[in-house]
Amino acid sequence: MSIQYTSDEQLTFQYFFTICDKTDQGILRKDMATNFLQASGLNQQILKTIYEIASSNDKIFTKDEFFAALKLIALAQDGYYPEQKLLTQNIPTLLPQIQGYQHPIYDIPEEQMRKYETYFVKLDKDGNQTIKGKHAKALFSKSGLSQDKLKEIWNLCDIGEKGHLSKGEFIVAFHLVLLCCKCKYPLPTRLPDSLLQLAARISINPRIRLESNQNAVPQQRLGSNSNLLNQPRQRLGSDANNGIQQVQNFDQIQQVIEPLNANILPGYDQNEMNSMRQQINDSTQQVYKMQNQFNEFYQNNTLLNKEEMYQLQAQNDKQMND
What we know:
Elements (H helix, E strand, L loop, with lengths): L6 H14 L6 E3 H8 L6 H11 L5 E3 H15 L32 H14 L6 E3 H8 L6 H11 L6 E3 H16 L10 H12 L45 H14 L6 H52 L1
Antiparallel strand pairs: 1-2, 3-4
Helix pairs in contact: 1-4, 3-4, 5-8, 7-8, 8-9, 9-11
């Protein structure tokens, strides 16, 4: 049985699995899994049905079985009676709500970004707004993460495979290192939209002060790992933030939007939406790569112009002395 999960589901389910996998063996004892899943608040009969569908063993839950159980719990919380066929129908749902546990959030708080900027300034000794691999490795290795994990983070953040990290890329990489080592967050297979756009925005204009970013308006989509809707943002060059009421609950917004997507938008399909989202991310990365190439060209051209000016100055000085 092939079950397709959204990127948010994969990250959240992996995070919940890591929390439950106390022995780090890649499997869960039945009692460990059931104790966790009971925090969903579903009645015992519904949970029993979910266990029977998802698990093929009375003693353990594999990772795939645990993921399937979480998917069924999310569907049950949305009002569906758990059935095996639901797992392959790609029904849009909210993430499962497990009492006492939060979904992983990858966005970077403003205060944390300022700390990352401080480290960047310390490492960027020549002031060229980039960090070389050896300097980043020396810092990130202090986290205790394996070299393979650090390499994965580097490959995620070194957009365009330049061999160095721009300011925005360094901030995102440092954030992922801390999330993996301190919070035990799973490493995404691709950067979440909010982090990708943050890296691009800061790297295009690396000299902006991060503490002034509250006036920026990152293009964020519903359904990504973000709490941006809980923070009212002012539009650039306007007083549009005045009089706007703060959104209290992001899940309430999804409860309204998802049914609209499913029932009103013609041809709405979760796989199609995921494909479109991936295309947009690929386009963003391509534009970002072109921007990096332009910056390198600009820097090289500036250096050549400076060298020519020095040569002309030297010739003038020599003529004056003669």
